Amino acid sequence: MAGKPPQGDPVQDAPQVAGPKHAAAGLPAIGHTLRVAQQQMGVRRTALTLLRVNQKDGFDCPGCAWPEPEHRHTAEFCENGAKAVAEEATLRRVTPDFFAAHSVADLATRSGYWLGQQGRLTQPMYLSEGADHYEPVPWERAFDIVAEELTALDSPDEALFYTSGRTSNEAAFLYQLFAREFGTNNLPDCSNMCHESSGSALNETLGIGKGSVLLDDLYKADLIIVAGQNPGTNHPRMLSALEKAKANGARIITVNPLPEAGMERFKNPQTPQGMFRGAALTDLFLQIRIGGDQALFRLLNKLILETAGAVDEDFVREHTHGYEAFAAAARAADWDETLTATGLERAKVEEALRMVLASQRTIVCWAMGLTQHKHSVPTIREVVNFLLLRGNIGRPGAGVCPVRGHSNVQGDRTMGIFERPAPAFLDALEKEFGFAPPREHGYDVVRAIGAMRDGKAKVFFAMGGNFVSASPDTEVTEAAMRRARLTVHVSTKLNRSHAVTGARALILPTLGRTERDLQGSGEQFVTVEDSMGMVHASRGRLEPASPHLLSEPAIVCRLARRVLGHRSPTPWEEFEKDYATVRDRIARVVPGFENFNARVAEPGGFTLPHAPRDERRFPTATGKANFTAAPVEYPKLPEGRLLLQTLRSHDQYNTTIYGLDDRYRGIKNGRRVVLVNPEDARELGLADGSYTDLVSEWKDGVERRAPGFRVVHYPTARGCAAAYYPETNVLVPLDATADTSNTPASKSVVVRLEQSTTN
Ligand SMILES: Nc1nc2c(c(=O)[nH]1)N[C@H]1C(S)=C(S)[C@@H](COP(=O)(O)OP(=O)(O)OC[C@H]3O[C@@H](n4cnc5c(=O)[nH]c(N)nc54)[C@H](O)[C@@H]3O)O[C@H]1N2
Ligand SMILES: Nc1nc2c(c(=O)[nH]1)N[C@H]1C(S)=C(S)[C@@H](COP(=O)(O)OP(=O)(O)OC[C@H]3O[C@@H](n4cnc5c(=O)[nH]c(N)nc54)[C@H](O)[C@@H]3O)O[C@H]1N2
Ligand SMILES: [Mo]
């Protein structure tokens, strides 16, 4: 199956391959950081801006949701945080002239990388029905257009209000309030595609859909299992925490189909010794097959049950429910089946067991490698079973640690961005604001796409994000978006969702985290919640990218006034003028935020309560922590097929592409690559450097094709392949989702590799 590189964008289609690295960060990372930052921001702005990241009087890094340590370095950011900042604080600008020069059809042919590189959006832009180009539009007219389309709907449920995870607590709270006063719970968010499986599993078993550990717990743990996560790229500051945990005596097990450089060795750029030699992080690497994690944890649970004295019987008796049914299921686990499902050698599992039994304080960390499979919810429940068995919930140094993605995705959910809100939350809203919120559940991301496709939803409004590129089944999603009457994006940067529009479309440019937010009552700050439930303030200092930008809270308040008019008893004007008045309301609606303004004024903010962590209290249906006993599942591959995971390179933030290299995996100057185990490649006749199409096979009989990928022989687990998102989203069928959470199964796509059709 040899072939030539496909025709097309010459920059993107010329990958060079040098093989994986075995250490992350160190000096090269600093060099990259400064180079990227200075290209976008210049030297002076780079220095001023990067020193403000994650400082107590600065802004929250718009990168990941990893928490800030108590003792901060002057430079409390990482290479990829700096890229996220540079991308936002860039001096490049997209002006009305740019839109005059590029039609929407032209923009739709451009790569996401090219679109992002054009710079910051500067003015509200409107695409009228039948027009080829966006044109500048005054803010008031833009709100009129949204109001026209919203009021023309037959039902409020024909509108969709999407949220990406960078939105502040204040903006998120106002946004959900507006959607619910308008009359719908259609609040799909990026979490539906991300940690929804974690939320589903944890809510049911522990009574709260969030992690149960703080940074200090990581430092106290004696065993940390990192499963399905690539922190070297996606949560680089987590490596410092793991390094510190190791220095305190912790051991680390890494569970991943790929050997990821960051988990092998970390060269801490903040310490002189770390810079050059670095610390080995992983003690035991379990190179698991994609989707084998539930089987692995089930077998470990069986082995724990069979070891005298290994179960924490007091904890199980006092705090849990469902033990008998779970234990019966776990005892039935089968070695042979587990070794097939996981692709692991018996000796490795036995070594893991020894480490587990030697541990008094175990933490399991995970991210998308566990959440984006059909059986993700039972997989994460099995992780909970594993921790419950030895009493590893609600004591120092132990617990669940789902590592969240977007910097405020957890906070947005806390603020009520959820299509299935808890009745208690709606009751509190009703009491505080004096209106009757809708009670029926709304659409999540996948159902929202279906609703647009079927003509049941007609207005799509996005608070951030890049819905078209982030969602599964790109062709279906794009066709669905094109059926909408109106698509609206509140955005900082240009992306593909601006080029795939409804009959009418609006781009509403907004302030980023790094920028000063001046309102009627003076300079404002906003708040965010990190992955560990810590809430703190974020203050931008830079001059806004353009004088025409409005903040996200201001956009919501003005839109609400325009759409709801006198119908709304809510003081939207006051909220826009002074965000402290929004926080006063949050304090009365959302548990844990009592006295919000005073507490967030403390340097470093405050920690939200977490009943299982703080008092071993489990607010579940049974009032106990629930063991569960789902049947073990794992993907079964037809002959000659591979299981494809769609993941992130080192040079991207979700659909924002910073550059074309994936340094730690040794790939340069190209993104259309597919990583295949050399033995599988040999069996399939796929030479390294040859070009192939990825064809996904799904029960609907539709063949989804992503053409022209360079084959890279790479040490991934047998039967598995990996390629970057979002280029491969076209392969993920809309209805290939996780049971219960409905999260797209973007980490387990059955594909066949076929001779390239593009050359
Ligand atoms: N720089 C940067 N930072 C980011 C992001 C970014 O794009 N760029 N995105 C942010 C967001 S929104 C999120 S959600 C997080 C994502 O953070 P991650 O979840 O780390 O991101 P992915 O690249 O999707 O990596 C998934 C990892 O899981 C492994 N994996 C895949 N399938 C399996 C499996 O079946 N079992 C196991 N055990 N492992 C598996 C993959 O090999 C890979 O190492 O990062 C956040 N931070
Ligand atoms: N195949 C596949 N698909 C996936 C995933 C995967 O692993 N594989 N991962 C999924 C995951 S975990 C997630 S979280 C989603 C991400 O889905 P999204 O959150 O929708 O996507 P992003 O790429 O993060 O959004 C980038 C855009 O956000 C806008 N933006 C940036 N900062 C701001 C801001 O401060 N305010 C506003 N209003 N806009 C801003 C910019 O215009 C930028 O173009 O993708 C999901 N899709
Ligand atoms: Mo995410």
Automatic annotation (TrEMBL):
Residues 1-21 are annotated as: Disordered. InterPro entries: Asp_de-COase-like_dom_sf (IPR009010), MopB_CT_YdeP (IPR037951), MoPterin_dinucl-bd_dom (IPR006657), Mopterin_OxRdtase (IPR006656), Mopterin_OxRdtse_a_bac (IPR010046), Prok_molybdopt-oxidoreductase (IPR050123), YdeP_MopB (IPR041953). The keyword GTP-binding does not apply. It comes from Streptomyces sporangiiformans. Its cofactor is [4Fe-4S] cluster; Mo-bis(molybdopterin guanine dinucleotide). Belongs to the prokaryotic molybdopterin-containing oxidoreductase family. Pfam families: Molybdopterin (PF00384), Molydop_binding (PF01568). GO terms for cellular component: membrane. It comes from the Bacteria. The keyword Lyase does not apply. Residues 120-492 form the Molybdopterin oxidoreductase domain. This is FdhF/YdeP family oxidoreductase. Keywords: 4Fe-4S, Iron, Iron-sulfur, Metal-binding, Molybdenum, Oxidoreductase. GO terms for molecular function: 4 iron, 4 sulfur cluster binding; formate dehydrogenase (NAD+) activity; molybdenum ion binding; molybdopterin cofactor binding. Residues 642-749 form the Molybdopterin dinucleotide-binding domain. PANTHER family: PROTEIN YDEP (PTHR43105:SF4), RESPIRATORY NITRATE REDUCTASE (PTHR43105).
